[in-house]
Amino acid sequence: MSLFITDECINCDVCEPECPNEAIYQGEEIYEIDPDKCTECVGHYDEPQCQQVCPVDCIPLDPNNEESQEQLIAKYEKLTGNAFEG
């Protein structure tokens, strides 16, 4: 699954620079996550970095974008051009 940001977001700006795939961006009202770029940090880190730094815990898994570990790895490889070394 990709992640998404709920309306509990306080626009604190800490999640966006932590995303290795540049999937997080400022939306009209709150930060948003592009599901086509979100790999839950697979290939980069053991845990999603945005979730680790979010002070209000408003970045859950997106039930509308379910993806397997294999799909996340394939997305990582396509986005980075690197082979997954997990």
Structural overview:
The chain is an alpha+beta fold and 86 residues long. It has a single domain (16-80), classed as Alpha-Beta Plaits, CATH 3.30.70. 20% of the residues lie in helices and 7% in strands. The chain has 2 helices and 2 strands; from the N terminus they run E-E-H-H. A two-stranded antiparallel sheet has the order 1-2. Strand 1 (24-26) and strand 2 form a beta hairpin. The longest helix has 12 residues, at 69-80. The protein is globular, with a radius of gyration of 12 Å. It starts with 23 loop residues before the first strand and ends in a 6-residue tail after the last helix.
Keywords:
alpha+beta; two-stranded antiparallel sheet; globular; single chain; 86 residues
The major β-sheet equals:
2 strands, antiparallel
Q: What percent of the residues sit in helical stretches (DSSP H or I)? A: 10-25%
Major sheet strand order: 1-2
Note the overall shape: globular
